[in-house]
Design a protein that fits this description.
- The protein is an alpha/beta fold and 358 residues long.
- Helix content is 41%, strand content 19%.
- It contains 12 helices and 12 strands.
- The strands form 2 sheets. It has a 10-stranded mixed β-sheet, sandwiched between helices. A two-stranded antiparallel ribbon has the order 6-7.
- Bound molecules: 3-isopropylmalic acid and magnesium ion.
- The site of 3-isopropylmalic acid has 7 residues, from helix 4.
Length: 358
């Protein structure tokens, strides 16, 4: 059956990197018999400019009808003066919550060819393979009440709420335990249980869920220590599960262990593995429109889509192998090397490597 992929390029480098991912998808369609249909939609600043809203109803309809979503990136200086509720980022957060994409999988895998691109010593990062499982539709990102108000004495005050219900912790913990079962069977839950009740509760529920996964070794770490340990000795981790905000921060940190944030894909899944796939990096306005961005994180997001939602593991491996091949051939965009090639050249090289394996 034909699968519909909703394509949302977004802002900044979004359209450029998505164009390369589309080349890869078309190659799979034409030369690997992947039965897909692509539909395009607006989100983020691009949608604000066209409609006034970061997540227009039309886009919401499109993604709800589609089998899966591929997103570029959102945001940029142009929209920074808008109130938070109308900014491009709200489009992305709206997609996550409307589609109930509570499980965000962010692998940090070091391609052996890039051991020297990391700012850490090669021996600290070689063979690195961590999976961060980030809770994506709860916590302080979505908690109510939130806002800015004026106190009786006239002083202004701003507030957000860190809140987690039991079922929200339980379901993300299960995703993490199940991921760990398929890997090295080690799960580290990251919290700030020494200070925040909401994350003390998080720890309690994770321990409760762990009873169903006796073959996974569970450990706990405070987030400040986890940040330090990720830089000191990242290979001690297999799977990390954590809250929305801690996961946001630690996944950027982990990405740099692998050489570049331009390399890391992500999957955001609902309870039925329907999902949205996107690079973990942002819209990089400073290099937007210059044909400089690294499209590999987006191309690797397509591989994750094939694996988790479209059930095409062989094609996922084909893409990952093609990416390894171009890196082995010495091809680099400017974020990961010298004598860099362009966004489009990188996309073309991946397509060529894919076709050689067809
Ligand atoms: C990410 C991004 C987003 C987030 C922003 C763009 C809203 O940083 O996906 O990590 O904070 O979740
Ligand atoms: Mg982030």
């Amino acid at each position: 059956m034909t699968k519909t992929i909703a394509i949302l390029p977004g802002d900044g480098i979004g359209p450029e990197i998505i164009a390369e991912a589309i080349k890869v998808l078309k190659t799979l369609q034409n030369s690997f018999a992947l039965d897909i249909h692509l539909e395009h939609g607006l989100v983020g600043g691009a949608a604000i400019d066209a409609t006034g809203y970061p997540l227009p109803d039309e886009t919401l309809d499109l993604v709800k009808k589609a089998d899966v979503v591929l997103l570029g990136a959102v945001g940029g200086q142009k929209w920074e003066s808008l109130e938070i509720a109308r900014r491009p980022e709200k489009g992305l957060l709206g997609l996550r919550s409307e589609l109930k994409l509570f499980a965000n999988l962010r692998p940090a895998i070091l391609f052996p060819e890039l051991a020297n691109a990391s700012t850490l010593k090669p021996e600290v990062v070689e063979n690195l393979d961590i999976l961060i499982v980030r809770e994506l539709t709860g916590g302080i990102y979505f908690g109510q009440p939130r806002g800015i108000h004026t106190l009786e004495n006239g002083e202004r005050q701003a507030f957000n709420t860190l809140v987690y219900s039991e079922h929200e912790i339980e379901r993300i913990a299960r995703v993490a335990f199940e991921s760990a079962e398929k890997r090295q069977k080690r799960l580290c839950s990251v919290d700030k249980a020494n200070v925040l009740e909401a994350t003390e509760f998080w720890r309690e529920i994770v321990i409760q869920v762990s009873k169903d996964y006796p073959n996974v070794a569970l450990s706990h770490m405070y987030v400040d220590n986890a940040a330090m340990q990720l830089v000191r000795a990242p290979k001690q981790f297999d799977v990390i599960v954590t809250t929305n905000m801690f996961g946001d921060i630690l996944s950027d940190l982990a990405s740099q262990l692998t050489g570049s944030i331009g390399m890391l894909p992500s999957a955001s899944l609902d309870a039925n593995n329907k999902g949205m796939y996107e690079p973990i990096h942002g819209s990089a306005p400073d290099i937007a429109g210059k044909n400089l961005a690294n499209p590999l994180a987006t191309i690797l997001s397509v591989a994750m889509m094939l694996r988790y939602t479209l059930n095409q593991p062989k094609l996922a491996i084909a893409i990952e192998t093609a990416v390894s091949q171009v890196l082995r051939d010495g091809l680099r965009t400017q974020d990961i090397g010298q004598n860099a090639i362009s966004t489009r050249e990188m996309g073309d090289a991946v397509v060529a490597a894919l076709l050689r394996s067809a």
